Amino acid sequence: MARPPTAAQRRVVEAADPVTGRLRGTEAQLAALVRRGLAFRHPRPPHDHFLTPAGHRLREAAAQAPPPARTPATAPPPPEPAAGTGVFAARVGGEEEPADAGPARAREVHSAWQGLLELRRMTDPHGATDRPCAWERSHLVRAAALALEADGHRPAGADGDGYRVRATPQPEAVAVYGPDGAVLRACAATLERAGWQAGEYTEPRTGRRYVLASPRRV
User: Fold this and answer.
1) Residue 35 to residue 52: CA distance in whole angstroms
2) pLDDT tops 60 at residue 73
3) Which of 32, 1, 19 lies closest to 11, judged by CA?
């Protein structure tokens, strides 16, 4: 049975880019993660290391794990997070926190989208970037929301004026809601350009219009 990764190796995995899975660490740490099947070395220069699907699962499990219990009398207070180390999350619409639409957020979204295109290029046999990759198929809501936000669409806030991306019972499909038909048509066009199949539908019970989108395979 393979030994579990060390604490140092886990920290490298947990610090990986949440979208591309790009890793930063010492050569020994990265080589050890490759041997454990948690990372791979890209064959093209600059030969960076990236998480494998198993590595992504380990990272996500660590992110979802509850923090360890502390003893109030002896445990020190948690350190303040370092500036710029927050984990990027695409806005799906309806978040409780007000959306930051400033330059910093725009840079974060642009960087995340470029990273996702690079992930497509690396994982497609022909280096294509015109259709979603495996990561997007396993994170449908986040992937669709990133495509929309990267193209300038505004997620819905407290006023409800913007897009909302939601999961559906259908396999590999998300629903996008908007305040009117113009927003829905614009969202559908963006997703189609990003490699998704999108069409407008109506909920039978409510009569509410929405866009149903699925990652295109060919």
Assistant:
1) 11
2) no
3) 32
CB atoms within 10 A of CB 73: 5
Q: Strand 196-202 relative to strand 209-215: parallel, antiparallel, unpaired?
A: antiparallel
- For 9, counting Cβ atoms within 10 Å of its Cβ (0-12 exposed, 13-18 middle, 19+ buried), the class is buried
Two structure tokens written together for 22: 């790009």
Is-above-0.85 flag for pTM?
Answer: no
For the record, the structure tokens of 78 come out as 């948690």
| Tens of pLDDT, residues 164-215 | 999 999 989 999 999 999 999 999 999 999 999 999 999 999 999 999 999 9
Tell me the pLDDT band of 163, cut-offs 50, 70 and 90.
very high
Length of the chain: 218
